[in-house]
Amino acid sequence: MAGNRTFSMIKPDAYEAGNTGAILKMMEEAGFRIVSMKLTRLTADNAGAFYAVHKERPFYQDLVSYMSSGPIVALILEKDNAVADFRKLIGATNPAEAEDGTIRKLFAKSIEANAVHGSDSDENAAIEGSFFFAETEKF
Ligand code: GDP
Question: Which CATH superfamily is domain 5-133 in?
């Protein structure tokens, strides 16, 4: 059975561009409840650990420096079928391939600076949520 929580980040490009409010509004209007939310900034070490699965990819170092370049908003979101429905709401990794009306189509600047993160499985949603939030911060 699909889980009902996912983890998201509003990435540095979207925060810097002042799109945080608009993106949160799209999340809520799509039926996601905010379980946890934090404005914070990743160190390069934090970003490297978060994206460790991409260590061997050619863009890893760029991704780590981009993700630690400015504040991010970390979120746990709740909805039936959260992981799949949220991936649909954010759209393809590359905004050039993202469908109209998706968050990345509207706000992403490039394949790297693509406005938002969304977990790709229930297991990763739980791991990523706990990377940022204690159990007592999950409402
Ligand atoms: P996601 O699940 O849609 O976020 O995509 P991935 O898990 O494949 O990649 C993680 C993140 O790495 C993406 O959201 C982008 O920020 C970045 N990324 C992915 N592919 C590329 C790429 O080809 N070049 C660069 N520079 N960054 C990439």
Answer: Nucleoside diphosphate kinase-like domain (3.30.70.141)
The protein residue with its alpha carbon nearest to ligand 1, atom 8, reads: 93
Pocket test for ligand 1, best of 59, 72, 119 (most atoms within 8 A of CB): 59
Q: How far is the centre of ligand 1, averaged over its atoms, from the C-alpha of 112 (Å)?
A: 6
Domain ranges of the chain: 5-133
- Residue reference for tokens 């379980």: 35
Active site residues: 117
**Contact partners, residue 46, CB within 8 Å, separation at least 6:** 68
Q: Is the CB of residue 106 below 6 angstroms from any atom belonging to ligand 1?
A: no
Condensed to tens digits (0 to 9), the pLDDT of residues 73-130 reads 999 999 999 999 999 999 999 999 999 999 999 999 999 999 999 999 999 999 999 9
